[in-house]
Structures are given as C-alpha cells and as structure tokens.
Amino acid sequence: MKRPRVFVSRVIPAAGLVKVQAACETEVWPERLPPPYDVLREKVRGVDGLLCLLTDRIDGELMDAAGPQLRVISQIAVGYDNIDLAAARQRGIPVGHTPGVLTEATADLAFTLLLAGARRIVEGVQYIRDGKWDTWEPETLLGADLSGATLGIIGLGRIGQAMAQRAGGFNLRIIACDPVLSDEEIRGRGAEPVELEDLLRQSDFVSVHTPLTPETRHLINADALAAMKPTAVLVNSARGPIVDLVALEAALRQGQIAHAALDVTDPEPIAADHPILSLPNVTIVPHIGSASVRTRDQMAGIAANNLLAGLRGEPLPHAVPAD
Ligand code: DGY
Predict the structure, then answer these.
(1) Rg (Cα) of the chain, in Å, rounded?
(2) Which of 10, 76, 78 to probe ligand 1 with, by most ligand atoms within 8 A of CB?
(3) Cα(54)–Cα(106) distance, integer angstroms
(4) Angle at the Cα of 213 from the Cα atoms of 269 and 88, rounded to 5 degrees
(5) Cα 110–247–258 angle (5° rounding)?
(6) What pLDDT, on a 0 to 100 scale, did the predictor assign at position 109?
(7) What is the distance in A from the centroid of ligand 1 to the CA of 133?
(8) Could you give the residue numbers annotated as active site?
(9) What is the pTM for the complete model shown?
(10) 289 CB under 6 A from ligand 1?
(11) Cβ neighbours of residue 165 under 8 Å, at least 6 residues apart?
(12) Among 3, 78, 191, 233, which is most exposed with the fewest C-beta within 10 angstroms?
C-alpha cells in the first residue's frame, strides 16, 4: 500500500519523528531556522500531512498549495495562533496540538521568571561579571518578598492553574481573571476572582497565561502598565504580542513597573541590539517554557500520534478545541 507523504517543518525529538518516519514517506526540513513561507508552500505540495511548529505561518493559501489531499495539520505546541483555524475548518482539515504535557514545565519556567525578577538574579550575575562585588552590602540588589505578596494571574487555564499551585507553596495571595471561567470555577482553581483592572492595581506580580487572540493582543498596553504598582514584576510566558513591547520598554524606563521577566517577545526572536535588552530590570529568555527533555519528547509523541490518526482518517487524540 502507498505510504502517505508528510512534511515535518523542523527536526523534532526522535520520540515522535521515528514513529512518523516508520509510517510515512517523510521529508524533514533539516535546517535550524524555519523554512521561509514561500519555501514551505513549495514543500507541502502534494503532502497528505503536515507536522508544523509555532514559527510556521499556516494559512489558507498554504493549505491550497498543499492540495485537496491534505488531511491533517499537526502542530508541536499547545498554542496555535500561527494557524488559520477557520481556513482549516473550511477545507475540512483537522488540526492537532499538544496540550497537557507541557503544563508543568511551562509553569516551572514562569515561576522561575517570577523569582528571577523578584530577586534580581540577572542583575546579580551581571554585577559580579562587571567586577562590582567588593563586599557584602546592606542595601545592594534588594528585591521583593514573595511571602504575603499578591500574584495576579491573567488566564487561569491549565498553565495558569499550575502557576497558582506553585504560588500557594510560596505563601502568595492569588487573584485571577479569566473571561471563560465563572467566579466559582476561578475559586475552585485556587484563586480569588477579580476584574483585570483590579488585578493590575493590586498585584505585586502579574503573570500572563492567556492564549493570543484578537482580544488579548496588546492586552498589556500603556494603560495596563500605568495601572500596575511601581514595584510590580510582570511575567509573560504565553505569547509575545499580548504585551506591547514598546509600551513595556517605556514603562520600565519611567519606573512605572519594577521588572519584566519574559519568555516570549514581539517580535520574536528579539534582536540582540533591541534597546529593551540594555535595561537592567529586564529578564528575557528565548521561548523555552516547554524546553525540558521529557516534555519535548512527549510533545513530539503527541504531535506524531495526531498526524498519524489524521492520516488514517481517525479523530485526532488532541484536536484543537472547536470555537
Ligand atoms: C506552546 O506549546 O505553545 C509553547 O509556546 C511552546 O511549547
């Protein structure tokens, strides 16, 4: 029997790739950087399945370039804002993603960022590298206490909830807002429900865990930043465009907030000479929320299972939720 043809848009962990290669005629994009859109459009011509990454733009034009035989798109990520879901639905192409397995790793990273911002870890490392550590000083590199402080969680889905669990262990008061959850559900997930405006005003730490949608793009803008405490630490491990980076840079320069700790930026990747990187009160890491060995293996396994199920014409084990 003819094996299905698939394109995999980057080398992924063997835990998933080997399964795909065993069942399909597989072409893997071998380079470290993603295929440019035009190249991807050529590569998908005639494929039955596409395994893609959050760095690939997957729109209707690309689906049409692939052809009517394309029967599954499997993304190795929980987020799927790079995929035009309406276009996929119109064409009857199921889309898979990798929820659940990266919850703990991503919450670990978000909490790491919170601690790094609170205790000025990157500044401390730089202080030593700059040869400034001459003695123990009573008032140098003072940061914020977690115990008794308030953490505001924007978006109390799986990862937001895992963040709340970690915060409980550090004796933080937890408040949250989430447009799809009732107050009862927010309480059930370990947080006190509040409106976004109150969350911004009350929080010592604000952590963003909402998906990127037209409604959440620049949710953290100049007004939101102005509402925050001058001592506040902002953490974003969700998607870069939720925070207006230009407004954030201005807010940090003007002391409207104390620190920003980001795993995601807009644009992404951020250029090494971006002016925000010259500020001392910024901690930025390169979108590594799910970057643990076990988590990435599990993500690759789920992405492969989604792809293979779609190729067999079966429901995807982890299809993106319907609107
Ligand atoms: C996701 O899965 O959406 C993360 O951003 C990368 O793991």
Answers:
(1) 21
(2) 78
(3) 16
(4) 95
(5) 55
(6) 99
(7) 38
(8) 239, 268, 287
(9) 0.97
(10) yes
(11) 107, 190
(12) 3
